[in-house]
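Chapter summary example.
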Amino acid sequence: MIKKIPVIDLKQHQAVSGKSGMRDTYQPLNTVFASSSNPVEIAQGLKLNGADEMYIADLDLIESQGHNINDIKMVNTIMPVMFDGGVKNCEAFEFFLDYAFKVIVPTETLESIDEMEKIFEKYPKERIVVSIDTKNSELLAKNFDMSLSEFKDILIRLDPNEIILLDISGVGTEKGYNKKLLDEFAELKDKLIIAGGLNKDSLGELESLGIKKVLMGTSLHSGEVKILD
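The structure predicted for these 229 residues follows.
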């Protein structure tokens, strides 16, 4: 069975939802797992329903508008958190290790490939998750210019345990996975966690392609998809 890792985005200590990465339009999250958008309550509800890990993005931290890291630390006592705080360098990665079990290294915010290499030299792979952030089938990276194919070659060399393949334009849309993007990274499929716009139909297709893990937000929180189905 494909593993479904629940996703929440945090803004001002509340879980929020939105579409296609347009972060200024996000609203408080309505979820079947809790009666409020409090991240600790949602995590408790997720655990009761079979989740054993979750992904949290701190939108305030990513946009340099405050942070929610104490909420993250609380959730991490309920279940291991895979945390996206917009890591820029090795120093930031080290700081976040005190707050979450796994820390995401996203191409969108990473300062340089050198900084990612330092992280892999210094820390165990089980605590590192690389996120390949893409938009319109191109690598999304604010601080370096690189094709998806060039970045893939670097990942093959660094050999991470887990790699998120994120189609940002699909987030919240439930339109399904990006097949062209997946084909580009087919040789890394044992390590891939597919994210962005997944729906119920995507799961069977991805499982048949050999994908073992996905990130799911909208379809899980609406109740359309169950964690342990």
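To summarize the output: The two ends are 8 Å apart (CA to CA).
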